[in-house]
Design a protein that fits this description.
1090 residues
Length: 1090
C-alpha cells in the first residue's frame, strides 16, 4: 500500500533491509529474515522480533524508498506484504513517475513532486475504500481493556491507543500504549510477567523523539526522575504528535492558566478526540506560518501550481483556506508564500477547465492563477461564498484578458497599492525627525536608494497584504528597511495589518474606556513612562509620553491577564517611532499574543522557553564554547533582556531597529540567529574570560560598538541608548548590517518549524523547573513549622498537588482550577476544596478520625480554612497532620477540642498555622494586608489554653463520640472505652457539684444526678461500641430542656491526663511512611465527588 511520505533516519540503525532493485530515484528493499537466504543471525533476530509483534505493529517485509541524487535522505512511500504487491507499486512508479522527474532541475522539486503524487494516491484510495479512521468495535474493545487494567475513574477519556514496545533496560516489553486525556498508560503481560505504567501528563519533564543503536527511532518520556522509552515501527510520528498535543494541553490547562485559550475542540476534557488534537495541531501550525489571528482555522487544503509573474513559471505548493484568508505556500515554504484576505478578493474566474485552473482577482488590479487544482470548482465556490459573491464578475474577466494581451503590464499593475484609511496621528519619527528633501547628505541618498529598491520590489511582487514574500524579500530585510517604509512593513509581516482591518474603531473605543482607570497595571505604566528611551526627543515631550501611555493602558485594558510587564514600554516606544499610534497598538498585540507567546506575564515563561532553545542551539552550533563553559545558565541570564526587548535594551536605537525588522519577518528565529552570531563573534574573548563578570563586560563592550553606518538618524538620537562610549571607542566597530548578514549566512538554514518543535519540547522542562522551584520554596517554609522529614514532606507535597489536579482533570469549571494562579505566593498556588480535602485527609490521618462521618471532615476543613475562602493550602494541611502525628498529648487534644467548636468561636484565633494570603479581589494582591499579616506573625504569642472558649453540652456529646470512634480496632479498645466513660462521668459530676455550690436551692438538682447513674452504667463491658454514645445522647436531650452546662478545655485535659491508657494511645508513634505509601496507591482509586 502507498504510505504517507515520512523521512527515514538510517544514521544509527542496523542494516535490517536488503536492496532488491533500484534506480536513480527509488529503491525497493526486502527486510532481512524474509525470502532467500534468511539473512543469517541478523535475519533470525529480525524475524524473531517481527514474530513477537502483534498484527498492528509488524513491519511489512517489502518497502519502496524515494531518494534524490546526491542526498542521504530517504522517504518511505510504499510497503507490501508480498513481492507481487510491491512489484505492482514499482511498475506504477516506472510508468507514471520516472519520465516526469527528468524535467525537474532541482532535487527539492523532485521530492516535492513525488510526495504530492503519493499523497494524491492515498487520498484517492481513501475516497474509494470509505473505511473509517477508527474501527468502533476495536476501539470499544480497547476501552474495556483500558478500564480493566488501569482502574482509573470512569470519567477518564481514552483518546487513542497503539501497539508498541516499552524498553526496561535493554529488554523490550511488547504491549499496548494508551493515551487518555490526563494519563499515559502502558500495559504488557508476557510469560507471566505483568508490566503496568501510569504517568500523568502534568508530571512529564521531557517528551522527544530519539534514536539508538537497536531501533531507528523511539519516543523518550522523562517523568518523576525516570526515563521511559517507547518504540514502534508504524505510526511513530502520529503517536508522538498526539502525545505532544496532550502534554501541551495539560500544561496549558493546569499550569499556565493565564494564557490558556480554549479551543472549541479542546474546551471539554471529557470530549477530547484524536481527530480534534490533530486538527488543533494543524491550526496552530497554519496560524503560526502565515501570522494569522487566533480565530482563524484551517478549513481546506488543495495542492496546486501558482503562476509566479515575476519568475515566469509555475511553482508547486498548497492552497490553505480559512474563514477569512486564502493562503498559498510553495512546497518548501521558503521559495514564496502569499496571503490574500477575503476582503481583498473582487472576483473568481475559471478560464481553463482542461488544466483545472482557477484565477482569483484582488483589489489593486492583481490576479493570481492556480492550476492543476484537484477540486477547483469546489475551491472557487468556497471563495465566492466567503466573499459574498453570487456570480462571476465581468470586471475580473476583462482584467484577465488584459493580462493575457499585455503581459508586460502585469508587473506595473500588481505594484499598485490600495489606499488605506488614515488615522489622526502620525509616527513620532515623522514628527521629530522629518526628512529634508532638498539637503540630502550621503546617508539620506543611500536611504533613498533603499526606498527605490523596495519600490522596484513592490512593482514586481506586489504591495500590501497580498504581496509575494520570497527570498528576495528577506534579502532586502537583511540589508535594512528604509525609515519611511518601516511602519508599513512591520504591520504587513507581523500580520497586525489584518488585525487592524478586522477591528475598525476598536482602538479608539478601548482608549476611551481605559483612560482614567486606576489599576496596578496603570500605576506601573506611569512609573515606567519616563524610562522608555528617555534620551530620544520624542519621549522628552508630552506628545510621545501621552501616546505611549494610551497604547500601554489600552493594551492592559484589552488583556488584563497580561496587563503590563516591564520591557513592554521599551518595545512600544520603538513601535511608536515608526508606526502610527493605532498601528503601534496592533503591533504590540501581534508581539504579545502571537509572535512572543507567554513572554509578558509574571513568570515570563515564553522568554525562559526561548532561552532553553537558545542553550540547545549553542550546544549544536558553538561546540567550542560549550567545551569551555559546561554550564550554559550564564547565557540564559545574560540573554534574557535580548529576548524580552528584541536587543533594543542592549543595542543603540539605530542598530536595534534593524533587528526588529528581521524579527517581524522571521519571528523568534531571527533573534536566536543573531544571539548565536554575537556569541560566535566574541568566541575568543568568552573562552579566555575567567568569570561571569568578565564575560558580561566583553558582551557589553561589544554591543556598545555596534553601529549602523547607513542610519539617517541625527547624532542627537544615535548611541544614546547605551553608555560608556568613551571606553568602547578604542574597540573596532561592528556594523549591524554585517552582523545580521553573518547571522543569516551561518545559521539561516534553521527552519521555523524546527524552532517551534524545540519550543514545545523545552516548554515542558521549563514549566516543570518552575514547579520544582515552587515546591522547594514551599517545603523550605513548611519544614520550619512541622516535624516531618524532608522526604516525607516531599511525598506529602506530591500527594497534595496530585489531589489538586484530580479535581481539575475532568472539568473546566473546578473551583480549585479557577482559583489557581501561578502569580500568587508559593503557598497559595495549590489549594484543596472541601471534597478534595476529604479524600486526601481520610487517606493520611492516623486514627480514622473522620471515617464515615462527613460532619467531622467539614469541621476539620472549616478549622483549617482560617481565611474562609473555601480552600486549604499545603502549609495548613501539613500543620494539621503534624499535630496528629507528632504533636504532644495536649496539642492533639486541643485539635480535637477545636473541631467541635462553632466557627464564630475560633475563626478569630490563630492557633493552628499562619494565616493564608490575603487578597482584595480576584488576582489583585493587597500588599498592605500582607505587611499587616507579617507584623501580626512577628508579634503573635503562643496560644494559651485559657483562651479557648468553653464547650457546651451538645458539643461535648459529639466530642465524646469522636473519642469513641478513634479507638475502633485498637488492641486496647475496651480499656480505652472504659477510660472515656469514666472521664465523661467525672466531668458531669464536677459540673453538677459546681452548680450545687452556686445554686443550692435549685429544684433541678435531681435530674443530672440520675443522668450520671445512667452514664456509669454505659461503661460496663457488655455494651456495644455505640452504647455510650446513645446513652449520652438520650440523657442530654432531657438535660438540655432543664439545665445549660459547659466545660472548659482545662477540665477535659486534666480529666484525660488521669487515664494512662488514653495518654499512651495519643502518644503512641504512628508510621507516617506507611500511610504515605498507602495513599500513593489508593489516591487515584479514591472517590472524589464534585
Amino acid at each position: 500500500m502507498w504510505l504517507k511520505p515520512e523521512e527515514i533516519l538510517l544514521k544509527n540503525a542496523l542494516k535490517l533491509w536488503v536492496a532488491e532493485k533500484g534506480n536513480e530515484y527509488f529503491v525497493l528493499q526486502r527486510r532481512r529474515g524474509y525470502g532467500e537466504g534468511g539473512g543469517g543471525l541478523t535475519g533470525l533476530l529480525v524475524g524473531t522480533l517481527d514474530t513477537m509483534m502483534d498484527s498492528t505493529s509488524k513491519v511489512a517485509p517489502f518497502r519502496i524508498l524515494h531518494q534524490t541524487p546526491d542526498s542521504q535522505i530517504y522517504w518511505s512511500i510504499a510497503c507490501g506484504g508480498t513481492k507481487e504487491e510491491i512489484n505492482q507499486h514499482w511498475e506504477w512508479l516506472e510508468k507514471n513517475i520516472m519520465r516526469t522527474l527528468s524535467v525537474f532541475d532541482s532535487s527539492d522539486d523532485i521530492t516535492s513532486f513525488v510526495q504530492g503524487k503519493i499523497r494524491g494516491l492515498i487520498a484517492e484510495e481513501g475516497k474509494v475504500s470509505g473505511v473509517q479512521e477508527d474501527d468502533p468495535e476495536k476501539f470499544r474493545e480497547a476501552l474495556l481493556r483500558f478500564e480493566k487494567w488501569f482502574d482509573l475513574p470512569q470519567k477518564e477519556k481514552l483518546v487513542t491507543y497503539y501497539s508498541c514496545s516499552y524498553w526496561r533496560g535493554r529488554v523490550p516489553c511488547q504491549g499496548w500504549l494508551y493515551l487518555s486525556t490526563n494519563f499515559l498508560s502502558f500495559y504488557s503481560y508476557l510469560l507471566g510477567s505483568e508490566v503496568k505504567l501510569v504517568v500523568s501528563w502534568n508530571e512529564i519533564w521531557r517528551l522527544e523523539k530519539t534514536s539508538n543503536v537497536i531501533l531507528t527511532e523511539s519516543i523518550h518520556v522523562l517523568a518523576n526522575g525516570e526515563d521511559h522509552y517507547f518504540s514502534m515501527f508504524l505510526h511513530l510520528s502520529e503517536t508522538f504528535l498526539i502525545m505532544e498535543q496532550l502534554a501541551d494541553y495539560s500544561i496549558k490547562r493546569l499550569f499556565d492558566k493565564e494564557t490558556f485559550q480554549e479551543e472549541p475542540s479542546l474546551s471539554d476534557p471529557l470530549q477530547i478526540t484524536k481527530r480534534g488534537l490533530e486538527t488543533n495541531a494543524r491550526n496552530e501550525q497554519f496560524r503560526a506560518f502565515f501570522r494569522l489571528p487566533k480565530e482563524e482555522n484551517l478549513l481546506e487544503v488543495y495542492e496546486s501550481f501558482l503562476w509566479v509573474p515575476f519568475s515566469h513559471f509555475n511553482t508547486l505548493g498548497k492552497i490553505c483556506l480559512s474563514e477569512s484568508y486564502l493562503c498559498f505556500a510553495s512546497q518548501d515554504g521558503s521559495q514564496c508564500h502569499v496571503i490574500i484576505p477575503m476582503r481583498e478578493v473582487i472576483g473568481v474566474e475559471k478560464p481553463d477547465r482542461s488544466s483545472r485552473a482557477l484565477t482569483v482577482c484582488v483589489r489593486g488590479k492583481r490576479a493570481l492563477r492556480f492550476s492543476e487544482v484537484r477540486d477547483f470548482e469546489r475551491l472557487g465556490n468556497a471563495i465566492r461564498r466567503r466573499c459574498g459573491m453570487t456570480g462571476i464578475r465581468g470586471e475580473c474577466q476583462n482584467l484577465i484578458n488584459h493580462f493575457e494581451d499585455n503581459p508586460e503590464e502585469v508587473a506595473m499593475m500588481v505594484g499598485q497599492k490600495e489606499s488605506s484609511k488614515t488615522v489622526s496621528n502620525e509616527a513620532l519619527m515623522t514628527v521629530f525627525h522629518p526628512q529634508d528633501a532638498e539637503n540630502l547628505d550621503p546617508k539620506m541618498l543611500k536611504e533613498k536608494m533603499k526606498e527605490q529598491s523596495w519600490n522596484i520590489h513592490f512593482s514586481e511582487y506586489g504591495r500590501g497584504t497580498s504581496m509575494f514574500c520570497t527570498k528576495k524579500t528577506r534579502d532586502l530585510i537583511v540589508r535594512g528597511v528604509p525609515e519611511a517604509l518601516r511602519g508599513e512593513l512591520w504591520m504587513l509581516f507581523s500580520g497586525a495589518v489584518n488585525d487592524m482591518a478586522a477591528n475598525p474603531g476598536y482602538y479608539s473605543e478601548i482608549v476611551d474606556k481605559s483612560l482614567g482607570t486606576s489599576t496596578l497595571a496603570t500605576d506601573e505604566i506611569e512609573r515606567d513612562l519616563h524610562r522608555s528611551l528617555p534620551e530620544h526627543p520624542a519621549f522628552q515631550s508630552d506628545t510621545g509620553i501621552s501616546a505611549l501611555r494610551r497604547v500601554l493602558t489600552a493594551y492592559a485594558y484589552r488583556n488584563p491577564k497580561i496587563g503590563y510587564c516591564q520591557a513592554m514600554n521599551i518595545l512600544t516606544s520603538v513601535l511608536l517611532l515608526y508606526a502610527k499610534e493605532e498601528e503601534a497598538f496592533w503591533l504590540l498585540v501581534a508581539v504579545c499574543e502571537r509572535m512572543l507567546p507567554d513572554y509578558f506575564n509574571r513568570r515570563i515563561i515564553g522568554a525562559l522557553v526561548d532561552q532553553a532553545v537558545f542553550e540547545e542551539l549553542i550546544r549544536m552550533h558553538l561546540t567550542q564554547l560549550t567545551e569551555h563553559m559546561t554550564d550554559l545558565t550564564f547565557f540564559s541570564s545574560v540573554s534574557l533582556s535580548w529576548f524580552l526587548t528584541l536587543f533594543i535594551s542592549v543595542l543603540p536605537i539605530e542598530s536595534a531597529v534593524n533587528v526588529v525588522d528581521c524579527f517581524f519577518y522571521d519571528g523568534i528565529k531571527a533573534i536566536l540567529q543573531l544571539g548565536l552570531a554575537v556569541l560566535d563573534y566574541n568566541m575568543e574573548g568568552l573562552i579566555s574570560s575567567h568569570d561571569d563578570a568578565e564575560a558580561v563586560t566583553i558582551l557589553s563592550k561589544f554591543f556598545d560598538n555596534v553601529t549602523n553606518k547607513d542610519s539617517p538618524l541625527p547624532q542627537t538620537v544615535q548611541q544614546n541608548s547605551v553608555g560608556n562610549n568613551d571606553k568602547a571607542s578604542s574597540l573596532s566597530k561592528v556594523d549591524i548590517s554585517d552582523l545580521i548578514k553573518e547571522a543569516y549566512e551561518k545559521y539561516g538554514d534553521m527552519k521555523s518549524e524546527e524552532v517551534e518543535r524545540m519550543r514545545k519540547r523545552n516548554k515542558l522542562y521549563v514549566i516543570q523547573t518552575l514547579e520544582d522551584t515552587t515546591k522547594q520554596n514551599v517545603l523550605r517554609v513548611v519544614s520550619q513549622e512541622v516535624k516531618f522529614s524532608v522526604p516525607q514532606l516531599d511525598n506529602l507535597y506530591a500527594l497534595f498537588k496530585r489531589q489538586h489536579f484530580l479535581s481539575c482533570y475532568w472539568t473546566m469549571n473546578s473551583p480549585v482550577l479557577l482559583h489557581h494562579d501561578p502569580s500568587l505566593a508559593y503557598l497559595e498556588q495549590y489549594q484543596l476544596g472541601f471534597h478534595q480535602f476529604r479524600v486526601l485527609f481520610s487517606l493520611l490521618e492516623p486514627w480514622s478520625l473522620c471515617s464515615g462521618n462527613d460532619a467531622l471532615f467539614l469541621w476539620a476543613f472549616r478549622l483549617l480554612d482560617e481565611n474562609q475562602d473555601g480552600l486549604v493550602n499545603f502549609k495548613e494541611f501539613c500543620c494539621a497532620l503534624d499535630i496528629l502525628y507528632s504533636g504532644t498529648f495536649t496539642n492533639k487534644l486541643k485539635f480535637l477540642f477545636k473541631l467541635h467548636l462553632p466557627p464564630d468561636d475560633h475563626c478569630t484565633h490563630d492557633h493552628l498555622c499562619l494565616k493564608t494570603a490575603l487578597s482584595t479581589g480576584k488576582g489583585k494582591v493587597d500588599l498592605q494586608a500582607y505587611l499587616k499579616q507579617w507584623q501580626d506573625e512577628i508579634l503573635k504569642k503562643e496560644e494559651s489554653i485559657k483562651d479557648l472558649p468553653r464547650i457546651n453540652q451538645a458539643q461535648f456529646i459529639q466530642f465524646s463520640k469522636t473519642l469513641y470512634n478513634l479507638f475502633h480496632g485498637d488492641p486496647e479498645e475496651e480499656s480505652l472505652y472504659r477510660a472515656v466513660a469514666r472521664v465523661t462521668s467525672l466531668l458531669l459530676r464536677m459540673e453538677e457539684v459546681g452548680r450545687r455550690l452556686q445554686e443550692p436551692t435549685s429544684p433541678t438538682q435531681a435530674a443530672p444526678e440520675g443522668a450520671l447513674l445512667n452514664r456509669e452504667a454505659c461503661s460496663t463491658p457488655e455494651r456495644s461500641s455505640d452504647t455510650p454514645c446513645a446513652t449520652i445522647t438520650l440523657e442530654a436531650g432531657s438535660i438540655l430542656q432543664e439545665v445549660e452546662w459547659s466545660f472548659a478545655f482545662e477540665q477535659i485535659l486534666a480529666s484525660l491526663l488521669n487515664e494512662p491508657v488514653l495518654v499512651r494511645f495519643f502518644e503512641r508513634p504512628v508510621d507516617i511512611q506507611a500511610r504515605l505509601d498507602h495513599a500513593k496507591g489508593a489516591q487515584l482509586k479514591a472517590k472524589t465527588n464534585k
